[in-house]
Amino acid sequence: MDRWLKNPWFIRVLALILALLLYASVNLDETTTETGSILPEGNKELTSMNNIPLQVYMNDEKYVIEGVPQNVTVTVEGPNSEVTKTVRQKNFDVYVDLENLEPGTHTVPIEHRGISNQLSVYMQPEEVEVTIEEKSQASFNVDIDFVNRGSMEEGFEVGDPKVEPANVQVTGSKTEVAKVSLVKAIVNLSGASEDISIKDAPVKVYDQQGNELNVFVEPNTVQVDAPIVPPSTEVSLDIQTKGDLPEGLSIESITANPEKVNVFGPSDTLGDISVIDGITVDLSTISEDTTLDVDVPVPENATKVEPGSVKVKVDVEETAEKTVNDVNLEVRNLSENQNITFLDPESKSVNLTIQGTKQELEAIEKDQFEAYVNAEDAEAEEAELPIEVKGPDNVKWNMSTEKARVRIE
């Protein structure tokens, strides 16, 4: 051993080995200090994670904020194993802390926790400008905004809608809530031909200019039910009678409630319907003022009538009489070369005993009646011709004579 130490070449080789070990030791310490790992630079990795939710810590019972993005991009750099674990598990939080800030506009950094300290972390964006305002809440009625009315099937219309709930709570900053002018549920009528029932019609909030506001709505959807009404037309009712009232009674009035009904059906059918007939009241069953429930017939080719029944009120009163004298007898269908002479009645007139209600009789005048004989089939010389009388429909009458004796030459 002493002999080696005395050999200068041995000393030189030993010095070289010690120098190399010292060099390697110094460089290893620097690498460990900078990277936290003794792995060489080739094992580092850099990965970005998009759409990482951004948490907000604040007093959300008192304040609302604007300007905070929902998501950010987080980039991590470091050892492959740590990057892989972080990207796979995403077991970390990204947040802004607004707990101790007052209302106003602030620029705050985006922070993180739960990421290994072996990784370098980069945020995009690194900070955000937020506006903090005091929270406000108000209740509003929900109107219905029917869109695409022109795209409904031809002739169909939308009836009165029902909304549940009828009111919603709008929450936001005092500034935004003060702007609220309209709260609407949107309903699309395109192609609608049947009743609408929508469980989740979206609710939108607008200012006076029609701009949608950035507020929170609870609930943000509502139930909307709306009838879709097919084409219709309103028509009157023609009420007929059959039979006779008991002796001594006259009809004061016959009225229907309602007086008109709606008829539904194809548009080309409705154009031909102006009145509904076929409603008949049997007077022989009535002895006093009576109200009847009467079904309304559906016209041919129509689909339905609303209402399907009406109340027909028949008012009666005791019969009164009035005499109308000297109603002139006309002659109809007499040939041009013939002359006629009245033998009986010589006055060429007839007297009428009018029966009806007192009110009806007060309005009766002689010129409302036409009395005549028809000479079309009468033979020459003397003949008896029936006397015909036309007058108001609401009264009855008896004639002083029912035939006229005439001479035709």
UniProtKB/TrEMBL annotation:
InterPro entries linked to this entry: c-di-AMP_regulator, YbbR
Pfam family, one: YbbR
PANTHER family listed in its UniProt record: CDAA REGULATORY PROTEIN CDAR (PTHR37804:SF1)
Protein name: YbbR-like domain-containing protein
